[in-house]
C-alpha cells in the first residue's frame, strides 16, 4: 500500500470512530468545499454560476437539528453538486 492509500485508510478509520453529529458535520462541510472548488473553477472559465440552494440547507442553522434535517440537507447539497458537475463537464 502506498502513502496516499495509507493516509486515506487512516482518515476513513478516524471518521468511522466519530459520533453521528461529527460525521454529519464533516459530510456537509466536505460537500460545501467541493461545491466551492467547482464553482471557483467555473468562475475562472468566465461562467457566473450560483449553486442551487434549498431551504433544507438552511435547516442546519436551526437550534435543534435532527438526523432527518441532516439527511435532507445532504440530499439538497448532492443535487446542487450534481448540477455543478454537469456544468463543469459540459
Commentary on this structure:
This protein is mostly helical and 90 residues long. The protein is built from four helices and no strands. α2 packs parallel to α4. The radius of gyration is 15 Å and the shape is flat.
Q: How many runs of DSSP E, i.e. beta strands?
A: 0
* Oligomer status: single chain
**Hey, roughly how much beta strand do the residues contain?**
under 5%
Structural class of the secondary elements?
mainly alpha
Features:
90 residues, mainly alpha, 73% helix
Short synopsis of the structure:
With 90 residues, the protein is an all-alpha fold.
Spell out the blueprint of helices and strands.
Layout: H1 3-16, H2 20-44, H3 55-58, H4 67-89
Helix pairs in contact: 2-4
Amino acid at each position: 500500500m502506498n502513502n496516499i492509500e495509507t493516509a486515506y485508510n487512516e482518515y476513513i478509520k478516524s471518521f468511522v470512530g466519530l459520533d453521528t453529529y461529527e460525521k454529519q458535520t464533516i459530510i456537509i462541510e466536505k460537500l460545501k468545499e467541493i461545491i466551492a472548488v467547482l464553482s471557483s473553477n467555473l468562475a475562472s472559465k468566465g461562467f457566473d454560476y450560483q449553486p442551487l440552494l434549498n431551504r433544507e440547507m438552511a435547516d442546519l442553522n436551526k437550534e435543534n437539528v435532527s438526523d432527518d434535517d441532516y439527511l435532507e440537507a445532504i440530499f439538497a447539497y448532492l443535487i446542487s453538486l450534481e448540477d455543478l458537475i454537469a456544468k463543469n463537464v459540459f
